[in-house]
Amino acid sequence: MKQLLMSQPLQSNYDAIMIGGGPAGTSTAAVLASHGHRVLVIERDRFPRYRIGESLIPFTYQPLERIGMIPKMRASSFVKKYSVSFVQPDGKRSQPFYFHTRYDKETVAQTWQVTRAEFDQMMMDNAREKGAEVVEGTTVTRLLTENDATVGVEIKSPDGTLSEVRARITVDCSGKEAFTSTRNSWRVRDPFLNKVAVWTYYEGSKRECGLDEGATTIAFVPEKGWFWHIPQHNDRVSVGIVAEGKYLTRDGVRDLKAIFDREVLQNEWIREHLAEGQQVGDYFITSEYSHHSKYCAAPGLLLAGDAFAFLDPVFSSGVMLALKSGVLAADLIHQGLEANDLSPARFEPYGQAMRQGVENMRKLVYAFYNPDFSFKDVVMKYPEASGELTDCLSGDVNKDFSALWSKISEFVPLPDELPYGKPMPMAA
Average pLDDT for residues 375-391, to the nearest whole number? Predict the structure, then answer.
């Protein structure tokens, strides 16, 4: 297991460098290191560290299986998740969308509710076990470029020392910080999805029974706001409200606890479930706006995970997309290293696949936020749409959903696809 401190010298050259040790970075590193490539993961924080994004969806199974994480997940204390359900403000709960109606109950149809500090640590340890080198508490200060190509990164160690590390390709897995697209002006806000989240944790609150104990619940409040309710191990629940900022701060209320407590009263199911428990820890806030990178790749550089695109978290797609991008990116990088060809054009299929997944989920998110949309209305008119909706909600996003979008378009308008995600055009 290669766990390096910055007091130890790094190699000067690697096959691949990952900026960031979250799910995208560690999944990319695990695959590449398994092929025997020299891989370095550079992580700004020291693990374990706190992150939100705790509910996994079924199609995280395949990338987790690919990197050897499934036995570790099954041996963990994480709560098993079999479904997602929706609750109206009056407390009326929908029939759960059970994943086993579409997938094998022992594999894809059973996923987990995680705490990210533990999950991300497991992912990082797994990458190390595969042979990746990881440095923590180390900041990437800039990309190194030669002849308009990225050739590595400059890093700052905890003592402030600057040094350079080079690689045949650098993968930006920096998460919502979006290191490359922010600095290169590639980052584009989604034209509509711009929400704010306020959340905290409860212990000892009410849970559903049996198969539904670990279900994710989406509970509505007025003006298309919604709560997430994610049961976790150690009798803890992650619960948060997502809505427009102007709605959450109406009447001049800005204290996070006051915002949260007021919104709890807007949904009877949330109020009832939290009433039996005790709030613990801090209240958190973040602007959960969606963003996209104009490009997926440039000479010597590839973007993965949230650094490529971050989508509104209502359907918990973030970790799945990060893992999916990491494994897909690693496969193409491995092929490129073997062929001695890491030109941006090689990653065009990667960009196309990731944008297809993002756009399919994005259409469903747009529909969800439209006040005229309800899953029930669509399924009542088109019962066969239930399976297609379950597929998309489960993360099976790289398939043709044109029939589903045609049905939903009868109820609400859907967005045009964004023209992003291709490799940066090469200069003539």
Answer: 92
